[in-house]
Amino acid sequence: DIQMTQSPSTLSASVGDRVTITCRASQSITNWLAWYQQKPGKAPKLLIYEVSSLESGVPSRFSGSGSGTEFTLTISSLQPDDFASYYCQQYNTNSYTFGQGTKLEIK
Amino acid sequence: EVQLVESGGGLVKPGGSLRLSCGASGLTFSSYSMNWVRQAPGKGLEWVSSISSSSYTFYAASVKGRFTISRDSAKNSLYLEVNSLRVEDTAVYYCAKGDKGAFDIWGRGTVITVSS
Predict the structure, then answer these.
(1) What is the mean pLDDT of chain B?
(2) Considering CB atoms only, which of A32, A44, A100 is closest to B106?
(3) What is the pLDDT of residue B27?
(4) Between chain A's N and C termini, which has fewer beta carbons within 10 Å?
(5) What is the DSSP string of B22-84?
């Protein structure tokens, strides 16, 4: 199975900051790489699919990039609503794997 | 509006069984793969099982042989039969629609607690 390793596990930042979360795959993966935002007590929300495609309704300050084994989620200018947990997820051969998550906290 | 609503969770003893349901509305249910994803208390997300639009089924190694996914397109419903439950199966179980290699629509979840 493909393992996904996210870093950092926790990130402290301020409103207006640019932040980047990294996800590394244990082997090269195709473009089936997605990012989710989750707030406490809520279901995850899809932000990015196919590495860099923005889900409908998601603000353009969110962007995704990468290839092979290294992928990133960037938030260009943090807003108060963005403080949450973020997960990457890959899909390969009828199996899905999530990263362990990154908690984005207010500094 | 697309909506997924899970039900069927509860408190069960180790070794017990439950049947989770997920009702879908606002989408052409039969056209999409459907999935179960779980989240243990304070932990991350874990994919559990998927069923394709053609009813091919796939499972995580941690549940294979104990869980069974199924769908009824006439009822716009997804199911997960969970058997031989273990303490480590305690989690919120989410139903999620699959598309583009991701899960684009999620329900609110139903909770399974396995405890003696």
Answers:
(1) 97
(2) A44
(3) 92
(4) C
(5) EEEESS-GGGS-EEEEEE-TTS-EEEEEEE-TT--EEE-TTTTTTEEEEEEGGGTEEEEEE-S
